[in-house]
Amino acid sequence: MAQTKKKTGFFEFFRQVKAEGKKTTWPTRKETTLSTIMVFVMVTIAAIFLFVTDQIVASVIRWLLG
Q1: Which residues fall within 8 angstroms of residue 8, CB to CB, at 6 or more apart?
Q2: If DSSP states are collapsed to H, E and C, what string results for the chain?
Q3: What percent of the chain has pLDDT over 70?
Q4: pLDDT band at residue 50, thresholds of 50, 70 and 90?
Q5: Distance CA 57, CA 51 (A)
Q6: Are 8 and 16 in contact (CB under 8 A)?
């Protein structure tokens, strides 16, 4: 048998959202900075890898169609 859920009122909903927001643990400035640097490093590595791969594939295709 399916349970019916009680509808939450407008103000009750926002009270619950506020309570959940207080439980949130935010990263420190150091953690955020380190994460941002790591993202830039990984994006740079991925860009270089894709560029080199694209150049190799393009060279092989040019050679085949030569």
Answers
A1: 16
A2: CCCCCCCCCHHHHHHHHHHHHHHCCCCCHHHHHHHHHHHHHHHHHHHHHHHHHHHHHHHHHHHHHC
A3: 92
A4: very high
A5: 10
A6: yes
pTM over 0.70: no
Using CA atoms, how far apart are residues 57 and 40, in angstroms rounded to an integer? 26
User: Both tokens of residue 7?
Assistant: 């509808």
Distance in angstroms (rounded) separating the CA atoms of residues 19 and 22:
5
Instruction: Say which residues have a Cβ less than 8 Å from residue 59's Cβ, sequence separation at least 6.
Output: none
* CA angle, 39 then 42 then 46, to 5°: 135
